[in-house]
TrEMBL record:
UniProt family annotation: Belongs to the LysR transcriptional regulatory family.
InterPro entries cross-referenced by the UniProt entry: LysR-type_TF_proteobact-type, LysR_HTH_N, WH-like_DNA-bd_sf, WH_DNA-bd_sf
Biological process annotations from GO: DNA-templated transcription
Protein name: LysR family transcriptional regulator
Gene3D superfamilies, A to Z: Periplasmic binding protein-like II (3.40.190.10), Winged helix-like DNA-binding domain superfamily/Winged helix DNA-binding domain (1.10.10.10)
Protein source organism: Shimia isoporae
Pfam families named in the record: HTH_1
């Protein structure tokens, strides 16, 4: 098959390096070659097969949406070739590669580092990059590999499982606090925002933030009471929980793009994160502050 000729496979290494680093200079450093060599080899591959793989922007190179699956297939083929070589040498082929995990700032700061640290100890071949954003990543443009999101439901192009539930409570420094802190930006689409909209008059809201981490800090300064994830607020000694535990909880999905289902490094990461979230389900649900 033409795809597997040595010259094609060698050029493909340069394509994969650009896809992983997002820039020609980054690919050049990764492969130990100069900038011009990377440009030449990527152009040769695209010309040979009559297709454009990347969108060129001022920020660098991004894989075109219709080429994402091809890049992942190439990565799997590269891993398979390396695995065969290891098995021929009598070595066990481990799960290897980089996985970008997109999640909220709350989970990236208070939950996921603990899980990623344990994963690195147990699965040495995986390299996890945490992408902290309260906006949804565009998986069709390969901005991330795995999503860990508290949300009612997944998008149509995503598949995944629920690892735990994220509990919420109302917290303040002063139990008699009357002022509220509201939700802004992407958080206006959250379960917490819908709960507030049904129960808190707008005139009682004296400030807002687009981050639960920032809201917790504001509440800790006594600026108002706020609805917060229990996993954040329960560890702040300044805050007192004011509700009786009747607030809604959000399922925490661990998911990936449907086209990436079955990719070994992504599946291994997903399974590990699901197990880890399940093990800390009580803490995530806020059971410690209701005890």
């Amino acid at each position: 098959m033409r795809f597997m000729h040595n010259e094609n496979w060698d050029d493909l290494r340069f394509v994969l390096a650009v896809a992983e680093t997002g820039t020609v200079s980054g690919a050049a450093r990764k492969l130990g070659v100069n900038h011009a060599t990377v440009l030449r080899r990527v152009a040769a591959y695209e010309t040979r097969f009559g297709l454009a793989i990347f969108d060129r922007t001022a920020k660098g190179y991004s894989v075109r949406p219709d080429r994402v699956r091809m890049i992942e297939a190439a990565r799997e083929a590269e891993n398979a070739v390396n695995s065969v070589a290891r098995m021929l040498q009598g070595e066990q082929a481990p799960v290897m590669g980089s996985v970008r995990v997109s999640s909220t700032d709350s989970l990236c700061q208070f939950v996921l580092p603990e899980l990623v640290g344990a994963l690195h100890k147990d699965v040495s071949g995986l390299r996890i990059a945490l992408m902290s954003t309260n906006a949804r990543s565009d998986f069709s443009r390969s901005q991330a590999d795995v999503a860990v999101r508290p949300t009612d439901e997944l998008g149509e192009d995503m598949v995944g499982d629920i690892g735990a539930h994220l509990g919420f409570g109302v917290y303040a420094v002063d139990p008699d606090q009357e002022d509220w802190l509201g939700l802004a930006g992407p958080l206006t689409r959250s379960l917490a925002a819908r709960w507030m909209a049904a129960r808190v008059e707008p005139e009682r809201i004296v400030g807002a933030a687009d981050s639960f981490v920032v809201l917790a800090y504001m509440a800790g300064l006594g600026l108002g009471k706020a609805i917060l994830p229990c996993v954040i607020a329960d560890i702040d000694p300044r805050l007192v929980r004011l509700d009786d535990g009747g607030l809604p909880s959000a399922p925490i999905w661990v998911a990936n793009h449907v086209d990436m289902a079955g990719v070994s490094r992504i599946e291994a990461t997903r399974r590990y994160l699901l197990d880890g979230l399940g093990n800390m389900s009580g803490r995530l649900a806020g059971e410690m502050s209701r005890a």
